[in-house]
Amino acid sequence: PILYSYFRSSCSWRVRIALALKGISYDLVPVNLIKDGGQQFSAEFKALNPMQQVPALKIDGITLCQSLAIINYLEETHPNPRLLPQDPKKRAQVRMIADHIVSGIQPLQNLSVLKQMGEKKMEWAQNCITSGFQALEQILQHTAGRYCVGDEVSMADLCLVPQVANAERFEVDMGPYPTITRINKALLELEAFKITHPSRQPDTPAELRA
């Protein structure tokens, strides 16, 4: 497999965690979203992913884009360890939390949107994340065990940790979100989350390295 990734992309980080948890080795091709006006806009990368976004994963003779589509494919082709619970209610909760983050928070504060916001980009990002986290904190109080849904790492957790990293980068006060904070801390102790961290990627700038 070949993963096209950017060290700071939360969508790419989700996929890196899934690959690590499932023990799938891959080659990483960095796509710098800022350098040269954004390498994702090159003709070469547009041919790979017409949406001009990371991640993209070449695997088993196909190219997949969109992080949850990639993670679902990995789940179906490499079922262990499981990232979706067997219980239909828990599985629905996992998908609900993942969608809450990947549809309801992250796209509103990603690079392409922030570019449009000019001087207000910090305030905009904080507002988007805060409103999303207020809802997420309430949801997790009903679903969480050690992790987002019960005590097993799931697709929801793969979405949570990168989004908390975004919140910290945009200086969001995490005080009102004790459940999110507790789960994030527990997940960051796991090896798959450590080795895939943005501070430990081949394309991480020297000043941001762990």
UniProtKB/TrEMBL annotation:
What organism is the protein native to?
Toxostoma redivivum
Q: Where is the GST C-terminal domain?
A: 87-206
Q: Name one GO cellular component term.
A: mitochondrion
Gene Ontology MF annotations: glutathione transferase activity; maleylacetoacetate isomerase activity
GN (gene name)? Gstz1_0
Q: Which PANTHER family does the protein's record reference?
A: MALEYLACETOACETATE ISOMERASE
Transmembrane residues, as ranges? none
Annotated protein name in UniProt: Maleylacetoacetate isomerase
UniProt cross-references to InterPro entries, sorted A to Z: Glutathione-S-Trfase_C-like (IPR010987), Glutathione-S-Trfase_C_sf (IPR036282), Glutathione_S-Trfase (IPR040079), Glutathione_S-Trfase_N (IPR004045), GST_C (IPR004046), GST_Zeta (IPR005955), GST_Zeta_C (IPR034330), GST_Zeta_N (IPR034333)
Task: Name the cofactor(s).
Answer: glutathione
Q: What is its main location?
A: cytoplasm
